[in-house]
Amino acid sequence: MLGRLTIEALPFYSWVAMGGAAVTVGGGIAVFLLITWLRAWKVLWTDWLTSVDHKKIGIMYVVLALVMLVRGFVDALMMRAQQAFSLNTEGYLPPEHFEQIFSSHGTIMIFFVAMPFLTGLINIIVPQQIGARDVAFPFLNSVSLWMTAAGAGLVLISLVVGKFSQAGWTGYPPYSGVEYSPGVGVDYWLWALITSGVGSTLSGINFIVTIVKNRCPGMTFMRMPMFTWTSLCASILIAFAFPALTVVAGQLMLDRTLGFHFFTNGDGGNMMMFANLLWIWGHPEVYILVLPAFGIFSEVVATFSRKRLFGYTSLVYATACIALLSFTVWLHHFFTMGSSADVNAIFGIATMIIAVPTGVKIFDWLFTMYKGRIEFHPSMVYTIGFMVTFVIGGVTGVLLAIPPADYLMHNSTFLVAHFHNMLIPGALFGYFAGLNYWFPKALGFKLDTKWGIRSFWCWIIGFYLAFMPLYVLGFKGMSRRMEHYADPSWQPYLIVAGIGALFVLCGIACIAIQLYVSAKTWGSARDITGDPWNGRTLEWATSSPPAAYNFAVLPEVTDIDAFHDMKILGQAYQTPQHYEDIVMPKNTWVGLALGALAFGLGFAFVWHIWWLVALCFVLSLVCVAIRASDDNSDFVLPAAEVARIERERLAEISPADLHDMRDFVPRGVASGAPLTGTV
Amino acid sequence: MNHSADRSQSTYLTGFVLAVLLTAIPFALVWGGLLVGPAVYAVIAVAAVLQVIVHLVFFLHIDLKSTPVENLFFLVFAAVLIFIMVGGSLWIMMDLHHRMQ
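^ Those are the sequences you sent over. The predicted structure of the assembly is below.
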């Protein structure tokens, strides 16, 4: 009846496991009680969970990412604490527990922090940047969100029922095969990947179609804001790379569940194919995480340097180059698997080439700052911290790209330091910059800058303290993922790394305090104009938070930095001649139901509860049929209602709230007078 | 209108027949044991690629004249990526195989 699910799956076998389960269950109960106490269930259901509005879906994605960031960081803190003390002792974590922690840390940070964070930011901002009213497929967007949430749910519940994978976040066979990992851990990992991977693929397709088809009049490809460009390239990478992950996870699932032999040694299987397929997805994935962050840095650096982005065209071409090259370097993740010198050399050289367009970008951002009036807003401070730190990671990456050097350093903490050095400044700092930069756009009030700056300093100090020692330890020969060790000269470095993790803890606490303080004093930090930073791109032309339809009248664009030009020409904040009826998608519960069923299906597969697998599958088909036969999925927002919303918005804005654009009017170099045709 | 509906029905039918044929040939070869060795793989691969083209032309109605440029761009991009991924995987795995002998 319940497959292999028995009472022994509950974590009463160890104190650490029980603690983790208690925190997970307790957190769930606390959230449930809080919502009940606030009597917010109805609002939550009608305004959020069933919403197909891209802005609300985006906010929910970011909330998911922040919650999972805390969970993934607790894992990191536990590993650092273990290694700081486990010289010649077992430490406080038994090996099978330590292995689960490093596996879930990687899985969570990539799939359930970085992916939802960037998907959320793209969701909130890209439709507004291209002057669109929604994404191309609003319902599909809701399905993507709940599929991702279902995957996150599977990782979380593995802490309470059963165990998580012990095979690392990459789960190489044969260790992840059924012979060496017979438990449910690897199955939890696989189903979390498959479910959230489907969600990500659908999001990627949705964003591609949105950007290609839904741009407002005049918004040619070479006038799109940089964040839209990087989002487009990242979405293309998602759509083409994620199928490889789904296939490889599906094959391993078949190996484990139905006795197939894709990756076993017998019967013609080949475990090396797993590494090959995983990294065909895995390397583009790195750029999926990093490219949207590059877009955020580009927007932030132009806005807070009060200058047009330097080298827009070169940034576009660099982004496109990175996107294509990212598909040609995957073998550098397994140089030591035994390929011949020819293969290793070609992939090594391709890897070094990819550093070139990235370098172009760094120079473009530096030249944007050159002679700019730089304002040290938290998002700008994160951007500068990124530029300094990311270059170090790039240099160690080019070092690792040399196959002979990689033979010495692969699988060492040098590698761990390198990829954290790319992903923390390169991706996470970008998302934090985006959080500080676009928060008023999403929720209507600004974040507290004081706590934003504090969070930055804690994060960057914590980052250097935590990962620079790991570079040194890698040179000293320390492997990654060691539960305990016998070399006393390593311990001081590991203690420093542990202190670094404590600084990062302060950084996360600062972000929590920042959110709390800002929410408490939100009335005094309201963003009335919808343009708090004197922004340059179209998302600042809408109100904050934007009306459900974003733009009452679709804007017309004649150049990049469309909104900046509108402000100079006095075209912003004008009442149009007339409003029109707007067709909007209705909310629906089907996306949420499909996510819940995907969770049930994954859970049932993990525990071999076959009747539940069949039930969830059939119910999913029923949901799809219900949705597909619903011809009444839109409603019309009448022009009079649009006019009322817009009138109320414009009435609130007084001329004193607007930015003084006189300084930005282009002037002739010789005469100093405004150029004709610009005012 | 009627005329174009007729034409599209006939293209679907042509596509369907071709698709069935291209599926039947590899099945027959393996089931009936008509071919053995590398020749089987070659025939299956060719049939699979032709199958993709049949789907694109007869079911998705892609042609070089009426299809928007963006769609053709993504199609070409997909072809390039498939070449990189499949070709690269074959190269890597053959190289490993060769070195293990």
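The radius of gyration of chain A is 25 Å. The mean pLDDT of chain A is 94.

Shout if you want it in another format.
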